[in-house]
Amino acid sequence: MKVGDIVSIKDEWRIFEFYYGLGVITLIEEGSDATGAWKTYRVQWSKDFLFHTENQLELISEARANSRD
């Protein structure tokens, strides 16, 4: 997954009070700490943004590559 991809959240990760719909990945952060390497995706949902791990998300549509050939 990459910035600009359209995603949905997997059913088992939904919070009932929050409407997700489709979201757009706006930022990917990677790092490491005492527990090991990590990667998180900032997803802009219709009313808010949240951070998720890749296993929480389902890819719906890939963003196009920005080509200027």
Q: Any descriptors?
A:
0% helix; mainly beta; five-stranded antiparallel β-sheet; 69 residues
Fold and architecture overview:
With about 70 residues, the protein is an all-beta fold. It has one domain. The protein has strands at about 5-10, 25-35, 35-45, 50, 55-60. Strand 3 and strand 4 (about 50) form a beta hairpin. The mean pLDDT is about 90.
Q: What's the shape?
A: globular
The residue-averaged pLDDT reads 90
Number of helices: 0
Main β-sheet: number of strands, strand sense, barrel status? 5 strands, antiparallel
Question: How do the strands line up in the largest sheet?
Answer: 4-3-2-1-5
Oligomer: single chain
How far the N terminus sits from the C terminus, by CA atoms, comes to: 24 Å
Unreliable spans are: none
SSE topology string: EEEEE
Structurally, the number of domains stands at: 1
Number of strands: 5
Structural class: mainly beta
Strand content: over 45%
Radius of gyration: 13 Å
| Helix residue percentage | under 10%
Q: In a few lines, what is going on in this structure?
A:
The chain is mostly beta strands and 69 residues long.
List the helices and strands and how they pair.
Blueprint (H helix, E strand, L loop, with lengths): L5 E4 L13 E11 L2 E9 L4 E4 L4 E5 L8
Antiparallel strand pairs: 1-2, 1-5, 2-3, 3-4
